[in-house]
Amino acid sequence: MRRTLWDCIRDQFTPQPPVAKADLTGKTVLVVGANTGLGFEAAQHFAKMNPGLLILACRSESRGQAALEKLKANTGCTTAEVWIVDLADFASVKQFCDKFEREDGRRLDILVLNAAILAEKYEPTKDGWETALQISCLSTPLVALALLPAMLKTAREHATQPRLVVVSSEMHYFTRIPKKVLEDPEILKTLGSKEYCTPAVMATRYHCTKLLNILFVRALTARLPSDSPLIVTTVNPGFCHSDLLRGLSGIVWLLEYLFGLFFYFSTEVGSRQYVFAALAPMGDAEELRGAYISGSKIVEPSDFVMSEEGKKTQDRIWNETVDILEKVDPRVGVTIEKYLSEGVVE
């Protein structure tokens, strides 16, 4: 599917459906990146549905607690907690997953992986990866794969169909993996290298990470059994007011700010897409598996994603991601061996 900037702007003037609703009594909802912006608004929506436990996964203890108090005051929810995780630090992600794993009986019905930054220049993490790439394309899959067994256990024990929602963006339509990168044996290593991350590359790094999110979800779905109760999707909230702009400066920030004044959804409106992906009636479950959701409906992703080149790239990046993450956390290898197949996208 091809889209232009005008298509995206036109969508910004399309009335959005009201937030989806469900009774979440007894269920556990985990929102990563929940202390501000779209993640916080989504958490507030879930908080109004009587969740058994609502986990706000945040990088900062102080900001997380402030968000928790605000959420309680706004919704009356008494079952929300703050858990700390820094997706720019593999050790923090492992500790976060360790905490979940220690409570063997804990269920996990809805996992919303909402984490991204807009980065103007190359900055490495302590783990040696470009920060935006690690947050969105390594730590996000790490959380998904480490907690996947808990979601499948929840499905078995409670006869439910858990949802794993990875936040992407319509900006994935405006990028593809360059051929010179595809010629390298290690795509992610090249994308994350200091030599590759020139200012021009970093100007579209957000687009690239959102494309990689879609490829991850499609690769994961291809490897889940066809009758798996777990439904994995990506979702586009649209252009929204959020804290993403804090990563920009100068003229780029000003242009984005002015664009937002005229065209952006409110954060609350954008967050409805997260909730839709997590709660939409199943209908034909096969249609939702690996789907890209935008405007509260399933939409075809970019031509690159759907192309033969895109499918081959998807499998190469999956294999590289797994190889990297198995070295970070042995749980990844266990999850893949026990729950996933070697399926390659046809």
Defining traits:
346 residues, alpha/beta, Rossmann fold, 8-stranded mixed beta sheet, 15 helices, 11% strand, globular
CATH homologous superfamily descriptor? NAD(P)-binding Rossmann-like Domain
State the CATH class: Alpha Beta
CATH architecture: 3-Layer(aba) Sandwich
Main beta-sheet annotation: 8 strands, mixed
Q: What is the total tally of β strands?
A: 8
What's the helical proportion of residues?
40-55%
The low-pLDDT segments are none
Look at the helices and sheets and give the structural class: alpha/beta
Q: What is the 3D shape? A: globular
Helix segment tally: 15
Number of domains: 1
Mean pLDDT score = 89
Task: Tell me about this structure.
With 346 residues, the chain is α/β, with parallel strands linked by helices. The chain has a single domain, classed as NAD(P)-binding Rossmann-like Domain (Rossmann fold). The protein contains 15 helices and eight strands. It has helices spanning 5-12, 37-47, 61-75, 90-102, 131-158, 179-182, 187-191, 199-202, 205-223, 250-263, 267-279, 285-288, 303-306, 308-328, 331-339, and strands at 28-32, 53-58, 80-84, 110-113, 163-167, 231-236, 292-294, 297-299. An eight-stranded mixed sheet has the order 3-2-1-4-5-6-7-8, sandwiched between helices. α2 links the parallel β1 (28-32) and β2. α4 (90-102) runs parallel beside α5 (131-158), α5 packs parallel to α9 and α5 packs across α15. It is globular.
